[in-house]
Amino acid sequence: MAEKEVKLFGNWASTYTLRVEWALKLKGIEYEYVNEDIPFNKSEELLRLNPVTKKIPVLVHNGKPLAESLVIIEYIDDTWTKGYSIMPKDPYDRAQARFWAKFADDKCMSAMYSVSTSSGEAQQKMLQEAREAFQILEQALGSKKFFGGDQIGYLDLAITLLAFWIPILEEIVSVSMVDNENAPLLKEWFTRILDVDMIKTSLPPRDKMYELSKQRREQFFSGQI
Amino acid sequence: MADLGEEVKLIGSSNSLFSSRPRVALKLKGVDYDFLQEKWWQKSDLLLESNPVYKKIPVLIHNNKPVCESMIIVEYIDETWTSKGPSILPSDPYDRAMARFWTAYSDDKFPSLLRVLTGPVPGEIPEAREQFVASLQLLEAALEKCNKGKIFFGGDDIGYLDIALGSHFGWIEATEKLAGIRLLEKEKVPRLAEWCEHYFGHPAVKDIMPMTEELVAFATEVKSSFSAPAK
Q: Is B164 on the interface with A (CB under 8 A)?
């Protein structure tokens, strides 16, 4: 299928945006990128393209907008069928990949968020939940090289930024969410995935990510967000 | 009787609307299965084994391999029994993405709103009702835009998004009765009202969806068991 125009509205620090960018890069698709200043300064164009949830990322292909990062990734795989295969082929494997991506978003992301926006005893409780969530997530990896098997796939794309972001949050908040005690295989995957060329060369600058995460935590505690 | 070599089981409940989603999909595809009903107050060992992560119904077990999460199960059914029955997901990638988008939206919005609307804090009901009605307006517009003049979101026949919405809409009448409010007003959302009639009358749906009275009784039973004094 001839590609006409692909535009992506996102944010440089957003795991949801980066997932989609990695999917586009895996397929070798050229796209125009528009960085949105979230959450307070969204562009008129973004709000026009996604009036329902008003969130990034939004992919526009041939003038038609799509939202929801995991939905967008499957769209990319369904549309650009030549080249890299992002989703597994077998229906059962596809169901498993979708299940774990949903678990990662529902449980792991929210646990991380709770840990980084709490303190004291409450934080200890959130930390315990986060550690358990990552321990469970590790089941999807097992002894494989990547979640997708020998090559990175849908589930790797969904979770990759955590490999970069969790160590940063752990530093800011002085806790350990993923370590050799609760998820040794996942920890090893962190190292492997961050070493993949395409990922390595497209991560946000670490110091910028550190500063932003610290700022968000402070904003949260001061009631701004 | 199952197809030769195929063993299909569904762990669910006849008054669970999330369970109704794979049941409708299996009926559309003409796939036979063993329906293993759970009691809401006591989870079976099989459920706990098959869905250790969430411990929730529905769970499809196909040739001993469990699949969890209702719409993931529906998609699995569509991708597995490809030569049986109609296609559940649209064939066009963009339409497919839109069906998934609206499903994600509905699953994010409706369950929590319905919980508040049938919940123990009457003060929260007006705000929840407003949000619910606003969501219905968005779906009404989506239906007008995407179904190209046909009745269902899937076109001539029911599809993925119809099945997803059906399980939320199945609660509307029961919620209206429990909370004493109107949610779906035909004058405001005529297409959705017509969609409801056709969806709940569809041959793959009508014997599966629990009746309003059943849902009202079920909700009342669950609510009173939680507010009963501890023994």
A: no
Q: What is the DSSP annotation of A86-130?
A: -S-SSHHHHHHHHHHHHHIIIIIIHHHHHHHT--HHHHHHHHHHH
For A71, which of B67, B75, B97 is closest by C-beta distance? B97
Q: What is the pLDDT of residues B102-145, one digit of tens each?
A: 999 999 999 999 999 988 898 999 999 999 999 999 999 999 88
Domain presence at residue A130? yes
A107 and A216 fall within a common domain = yes
Q: For residue B78, is pLDDT > 50?
A: yes
Give the chain A residue nearest B68 (alpha carbons). Answer: A99
- H-helix or E-strand spanning residue B61: strand B59-62
**Residue A72 touches partner B, C-beta closer than 8 Å:** yes
Burial (0-12, 13-18, 19+ Cβ within 10 Å), B222:
middle
Residues contacting residue B60 through CB under 8 Å, at least 6 positions apart: B8, B9, B10, B11, B22, B33, B66, B67, B73, B76, B77
Domain that holds residue A157: 91-221
ipTM of the complex model: 0.94
Considering the domain architecture, whether residues A103 and A30 belong to the same structural domain is answered as no
What pairs with residue A8 in β-bridges? A33, A59
**Using CB atoms, which residue from B69, B80, B100 is nearest to A99?**
B69
Interval A62-104: pLDDT, tens: 999 999 999 999 999 999 999 899 999 999 999 999 999 999 9
